[in-house]
Amino acid sequence: MAFNLTRRKFLQTASLAAAAVPLSKVVSAETGITKAPLDAMGTHGDQTVVGGICEMCFWRCQLVGKVRDGRLMKLEGNPKSIDNGAAICARGNAGVKLLYDPDRLKYPLKNVGKRGAPTWKRISWQEALDTCGDKLNQVVDKYGAHGISVFPHGASAKYPMHYFERTVGTHNVSEASFFQCRGVRDTAYIATTGKAPGEKVDMPNTKVMFFIGTHIGENVHVSHVKQYIQGLQNGAKLIVADPRFSASAAKADIWVQIKPGTDTAYMLAIMNYLVQNDKYDHDFIENHSYGFEEFSEAIKEWTLEKAAAECDIPAAQIKEVADLLAANAPNVAIHPGRHVTWHGNDFQRQRALACLTGLLGAYYVKGGWVPAKGPKVKGFSWKNHDHGTDYNLNYNQEEEALRHPYAPPGTPSELIRDCAISGKPYPIKGCVVWGQNPMQTIPNQEKMKQVFMQMDFVMCVDIMPTDATLWADILLPEASYLERYDYIKKGTQWNLAETHQQYIAPRMPLVDPMFERKDQVYITNELAKRMGHASEIPVKSLEEMTEKSLASAGLSIAQIKAEDGIHIQPGKDPYSMPEDFEVQLYNDDLADAGFPGAPTYIAVPDVPKGFARLLYGRAPVHTFNRSQNNVWLHNAMPVNPVWVNNEVAGKLGLMDGDTVSVVNSEGVASGTTTTVKVTPGIRKDCVYMYHGYGSTNPALSVGKDQGIDDQKLITILTADPESGCSGMRNNFVKLVKNGKVLDMPA
Amino acid sequence: MQYGMIIDLERCVGCHACTIACKAEWEVPVVNSRNWVNRLGPSMTPEGLASTYYPGLCNHCEKPPCVDECPADPVDMTFTDAKSGATKTMSVSATWKDPFDGTVQIDKERCLGCGACADACPYGARFVNPDLADDNSMGKADKCTYCKPRVDAGFEPACVQTCIAGARIFGDLDDPSSEVSKYVKNGAKGIEPTGGHLGPNSRYYGNKRDMSLLFSSSTPALADLGSAKRRAMLATMVKPAMNKARDIGLLGLAGTMLVKKMNEDE
C-alpha cells in the first residue's frame, strides 16, 4: 500500500531508478564504502522549471517545479506571479504526490468484468481508440448524436466537450462545475446585472465583507485568501452568515447563526430595512437600476421581526448588519459565493445578493464588486455549429420554451439522467466521462448507477481511478496538469490597489508523461478520425493550440519561457462603471417566464422529527474526492469528522472522537464511518462534514473507505426551477453508533 | 543572533500549506512531520467562542532539553557565523544549539537514532526518521531546522515561502528592528510547557480568544526525562559494538542494494 512506502522504496517503484540512491554513490572513502548523505538536500539547489499552472483545484495558481535528475521534487509558486506569488496551498504542494501516485492510471484499460465491479485488462491505445470510435459510432448511427451524454470537468475536458457538443452535436453535456456548483450564481447575476460575478469582490480595499455560507480558509484559493486576509488586516469588518462556526466565522465580527435555507429571507429583510429607512444608494438606484418600485413593494412584507422568526436569529442582529452595511456603503464586498447549489431555491438567493449589492451602490467601486480588467487571449477549439432545439432536453417542444430558462451552458443533469433511465423522449446510450466523477458530484448515486447500467457504452478518461471510472467499459489514462501544455491562465495583480498589471501564463509541462498517458487533444483527435470528423480537427497538439492562442496576444511559447513562464503587461483601472450597467431589481423577463420578478424567498422543507439536516463544505486540504488518494493530503486530514452540537451530543451520549456512521431519511446508509466532532460551533438542527471523503474504488489504496461520502447521503433531489441546478442540502440524517440509530433531538 | 518564527493567527487560515511544503522540501516520511497544524475548536473560551490553529514546529529553545540528552560521543565542532564569518569551536554531541544563529541542529551521521532527544521534547517536535535507518540504527533523529540550509543560502524557510496568508514570519529575534521582534513587542508569545522555562523561539500572535484557545489546549507538560535518559543509556551501552560493526554493515548495505538491483533488472 502506497501509504507505507518509504522514500527510497517509493523512488524505486516509481520506475525512476535514476533518482534512487545509485550504487556508485555508496562507494568511496577509507573502507571503499560510504553512504549517501543522510540529510535531505533541500530543493533550493535543484533545477527550476517554469510554466506550471496548478490544477489541484480550479483556481490555477502559477507554479515552478524543482527538478532533480528528471524527477519533480517540489512545486512552488512562481515568484514572478502577481497572483499567488511564491505561495501555493497544501494541495498545490501535494501535486508531486499526484504526479507519482502509484495508483494513477498508466495504460488504456478494458473492463472484462462488470460495470461497477470491473476486471481490468491492459490493452493497446490502438485497440482502445478503435473500440471507443466503433462504440460511439454505433450509438450515433442507432440513436443519433443526442444518444451520447458527456460529463466533463477541468481544463483537459474542455476540448473533448467542445468536440462532442459542437462537432458530434449532442446537447447532453452536464458540467458539475455548473449544475452542482456555481452555474446558478452566474445565471442569477446575469439576469440581474448582465454579468457573471465570479468572486470578483475587492476584499483588500473594502470596509465590510458580507459572506453567505462562504467559508474562506476551509475553501482555499490562494489569491482569494490573500485578498480576504489583506481586507481583514486593513480593518474591514466581516459578517458571516453560516449555521456553523466556519473558518471565516471564526474571524468574523458578526456571526449570523442562520437557519439553513433561509438566507434569502434574511437578505430580503436587510434590503427592506434599507429601503424603508432610506439607507440605500439613491444615486445608484436612480441611474443604474430597474424596477425599484416593484421590487420595494414585493419585499415589503419582510420586516426584521418576520425574518428573525424565519431565520431563527435576533431581529436586532439583522438591523445591526444592515446598519453596518449602510454606514460603509458603497465600499462593501457582498460575496457572490462559489458552490451555491444548496436548496433548489438558489437562483432567488443569488438574485438577492446581486440586488443587495445594487442597493448599496457597491458595483465598480473601491471595496465592492469590481471585475478586474484582464488581458485578451483567444482560445482555439472545435467550430460552433447550431444543432437546433429538437433534441435539447431543456427545450419544451409543446410550449416552445426552455424548461429552465436560466440554465447555465449544457443540459441540467437531472434532465439527462431522467431521459437516459426512462428512454423518453429518446434513448441515451453512450456516455463519455472526462475528468468528472459524476458518482460523487451529482446527487443520488443509485440513479447514476442506473444511468451507467443502461448505456451501450461508457468510456472514462482521467488521471486517477475514481468512483465513476468503476463504471467504464474503456478507461483511458490522461497526462496530468504537470505533464502537458494546456490552459492559459490570465488575470491581473491580486490587489487592485496596486499598480494595474495583467498577466498571461500558459500551462507548460514541467516533466514528461510517464507510462502510456496521453493528453486530451491526442485522444479527442483520434476519436474524431474514427468518427468521420478528421477534417474538422482544429489543432494537432496541445502545444500547437497553446502557440496559436499565444499568437493572438502577440506572444509565443519561446517568449513565455524566456519570461520565466509568465508574461506581464500594463493593466487598466477597473474602477469605472460602464454607462449602460444596470441592476434589474425587478426583472420583467423572469416574470414573463412565470418566475418571481423580484427576489423571493421560497421556504425549504423543515427537518423531520428525529433527524438533522446534512450540511457539507470544503476541506482545506482536498479538492473533493479527486485528491482523496494523495498520501500527503490524506495524512493531513484522514477522515471528515461529523460536527454535532455539544448539547445535542450530550443528549445522545456522544463524545468527541466517537466513531459513527450516518443514515439518511430515505434509509441510505453511509457504509463507512467517521469520528464525531462535538462543538458549540454548529446549530442543533444540522450536522456538518467535509465533502470529498468515502471513495469506494478499491484501486485507491490510500483513499478507499476513508471517512464518509456526504454525496452518498444526498438522495432527495431538488432542482432549482429557474436554472435546473441541483439542490443538495435538503437531506436529513441520523447518526449510528455501535449499530444503534440515534434519534436526533430538535 | 537568535532566529525565531512568528505565527500570526490573525492571518493563519489553517490551510496546511506549510506542512506539505516541508514534506516536499525535506523528503519527510508521510507519517512523520517536522511541522504540524492542529485544528482547535470551535470551543468556548473565557473570551468567547473561538476556533483557531496550532501550527507547531521546533521551538529552537533558549534551553533546549533535547540537546542535553544526546548520548553520542562529543566531538569538537567549529561553527561559523554566516554573516560575519566569525568562528567558534564547541564540544557537542550529535545535536546542539548553534552559537551564532540560535537554531538547534542534528548531525545525522553521528546520531545513534536512540530517540532520547525526541523523548525529551515536550512539544513532540522531534521524531526518529525510519527512512534514514542504517545498520547502526532504526533511523535518525529528525526535526525542523528552521530550513537552515535554505536560510544560509539566502532563501526563506519553505513553510514561510509557501504560506498563502503571510502568517509565518521568520527573522532575528535579537534584532529589535526585525519583523519578528516587532511581533514580540506586540505580544507574540511562545508556548512554555507547564512548569518549564525553555524559552521557545517559535511564537504565536493572535486575538484574546484565539490565544486563549491555543494556550489552554496546546500547552504541554515537561517531558519525563527519566525515559529519555534510559533510552540514551541503552544506546550508549551498545554503541562500541555498533561502531565495530559499521564497516561490515555498510558492506552489507551495498550488497543488499546490489542484489536488489539485480532482481529488478531481471
Automatic annotation (TrEMBL), chain A:
Keywords: 4Fe-4S, Iron, Iron-sulfur, Metal-binding, Molybdenum, Oxidoreductase, Signal. Residues 1-29 form the signal peptide. Pfam families: Molybdop_Fe4S4, Molybdopterin, Molydop_binding. Residues 47-103 form the 4Fe-4S Mo/W bis-MGD-type domain. Transmembrane segments: none annotated. InterPro entries: Asp_de-COase-like_dom_sf (IPR009010), MoPterin_dinucl-bd_dom (IPR006657), Mopterin_OxRdtase (IPR006656), Mopterin_OxRdtase_4Fe-4S_dom (IPR006963), Mopterin_OxRdtase_prok_CS (IPR006655), Prok_Mopterin_Oxidored (IPR050612), TAT_signal (IPR006311). It comes from the Bacteria. Its cofactor is Mo-bis(molybdopterin guanine dinucleotide). One of its GO terms (molecular function) is oxidoreductase activity. PANTHER family: TETRATHIONATE REDUCTASE SUBUNIT A (PTHR43742:SF9), TRIMETHYLAMINE-N-OXIDE REDUCTASE (PTHR43742). Belongs to the prokaryotic molybdopterin-containing oxidoreductase family. This is Molybdopterin-dependent oxidoreductase. It comes from Candidatus Desulfatifera sulfidica. The lineage of its organism: Bacteria, Pseudomonadati, Thermodesulfobacteriota, Desulfobulbia, Desulfobulbales.
TrEMBL record, chain B:
SUPFAM superfamilies: 4Fe-4S ferredoxins. Transmembrane segments: none annotated. InterPro entries: 4Fe4S_Fe-S-bd, 4Fe4S_Fe_S_CS, ET_IronSulfur_Cluster-Binding. Keywords: 4Fe-4S, Iron, Iron-sulfur, Metal-binding. Residues 3-34, 102-131 form the 4Fe-4S ferredoxin-type domain. Pfam families: Fer4_11, Fer4_2. Signal peptide: none annotated. This is 4Fe-4S dicluster domain-containing protein. It comes from Candidatus Desulfatifera sulfidica.
